[in-house]
Specification:
8-stranded mixed sheet; alpha/beta; flat; two-stranded antiparallel ribbon
Length: 311
């Protein structure tokens, strides 16, 4: 009898505990959905009329352009959005990814004729500056990091470690340069020349893109002017202004006010940001776990590639 009572007691404890857990989970979910709906209605709605400025965040290492390009396209097609500000805080990233965002920014500026500006926060370097150069106007704080017009490709060579461990890399190939950049051996002089030619070509593309982007809105910028400072260095916002890499020293609020004025918005404009991704139940219970999940950005050092990236 005692064992039966004990088992029944534990059964009710489990049932009660499970019910309480489900109740707490339901409350958390309802509160989150209510808050999320409020955020959407106040700052993320599209359509309609009004004095709205779209804000797109270019944040972190640029690897996948799809999200940012999609956000830019949405704002570009929305007639209620009078202008777009790209809020930049990025050291750059992949060559092709940066180029795709740059092309969309330039399309909005030149084809859609919608004003688009960049406000550089802490850092707007390399690929992030590449993107910013296509806007109508670039703002940066005095202490912002700007520039780094250059290309980098790097990886870890663990050939000596394999030798120490008495392991051999086996590679079969068709084509002399097929395994150029293999982490198991040193490059041959011919491979070094080949890799450098790729990097030099990308560097020239970067320089020309910046010159094309900056050569607008009354600015006269030549590729030779950019090449003279395209040595991979970064500068402060204050220095970048003197070098004509940015147009005005100012924070994000300055960029908002100036952009609003330039498109005829009087008073405080409504800032519209893209919808945030919905969080999972795990995020609700344990907080944001994204920093613990390996991403392509975090694994980038394991991937051989070419980058417009400041390090």
């Amino acid at each position: 009898m005692a064992d039966e009572k004990r088992s029944r007691t534990w059964l009710w404890v489990l049932i009660g505990g499970g019910t309480f857990f489900l109740f707490v989970l339901a409350v958390f979910t309802l509160v989150y959905l209510a808050l999320h709906a409020g955020q959407q209605s106040s700052s993320s709605g599209f359509g309609g009329f009004g004095d709205k400025i779209g804000v797109v965040d270019l944040d972190g290492v640029i690897m996948d352009p799809a999200v940012v390009v999609g956000q830019l396209k949405k704002f570009a097609e929305d007639d209620s959005i009078k202008a777009i500000i790209i809020h930049v805080n990025s050291p750059g990233g992949g060559v092709a990814a940066s180029e795709e965002i740059y092309r969309e920014v330039k399309r909005i500026r030149d084809e859609k004729k919608k004003r688009i500006t960049a406000s550089i926060q802490t850092v707007g370097a390399s690929g992030a500056y590449y993107v910013s150069s296509a806007t109508n106007k670039i703002y940066a704080d005095k202490g912002s990091i700007v520039g780094s017009i250059g290309v980098i490709a790097q990886w870890v060579n663990y050939g000596d470690l394999l030798h120490w461990a008495h392991l051999k890399d086996v590679t079969m190939k068709a084509g002399e340069f097929k395994d150029t950049g293999s982490p198991t051996r040193d490059m041959t002089p011919a491979e070094q020349q080949y890799m450098q030619s790729l990097i030099d070509n990308m560097h020239t593309q970067f320089i020309q893109a910046v010159a094309d982007g900056r050569n607008s809105d009354g600015r006269k910028v030549k590729a030779e002017d950019i090449r003279a400072i395209a040595n991979g260095k970064v500068w402060t916002g204050e220095q970048a202004l003197d070098m004509k890499l940015i147009d005005q020293v100012g924070d994000f609020q300055t960029a908002v006010e100036d952009t609003a004025k330039s498109v005829g918005i009087s008073g405080e404009p409504t800032l519209v940001r893209p919808d945030r991704d919905r969080k999972t139940v795990l995020d609700l219970l344990f907080g944001d776990v994204s920093e613990w999940i390996p991403t392509r950005e975090k694994l980038m050092e394991q991937h051989v590639g070419f980058y417009y990236l400041w390090q």
